[in-house]
Amino acid sequence: MPTDPQTDAGPQTPAVPPPRNQGLGRIIVMVYAVFALSALARSLFQILSHFDRAPVAYVLSAFAAVVYIIATLSLARTGRTAWLVSLAAVLIELVGVVGVGLATVLHPELFADATVWSHFGAGYGYVPLVLPIVGLAWLLTHREPKES
Fold this sequence. Notes:
Helices cover 61% and strands 0% of the residues. By secondary structure, the protein is mostly helical. It has one domain (24-141).
């Protein structure tokens, strides 16, 4: 019995979602890259020029830069391991921004100078507070399948 080519399309393959580093994901990666570069430049300048003035703040800015670099690199990659590293980096960023934000509000005397995450990222238009939430939402809606 002949088959009708209009109705018999053969075996159906499941639709594969686009990689998480395309579309909006690419914009998220670019924002992370900008923050990685700006936090790195800021912390290096502060540490090299006047570290003794506010060492805690400058080390926190350097730590933020490292977190942003790791997030940028892992978000730009595909695969389960990159997804897990991205998730860890974004969660560390969220905890850092909230923790440092609270510390700068509750104990401003500990911060002689601002960090990237001071006052929840107020110096950067609160993007440091919003970015990990957006990143986390993106990661959770673009989960990588478990590797076999």
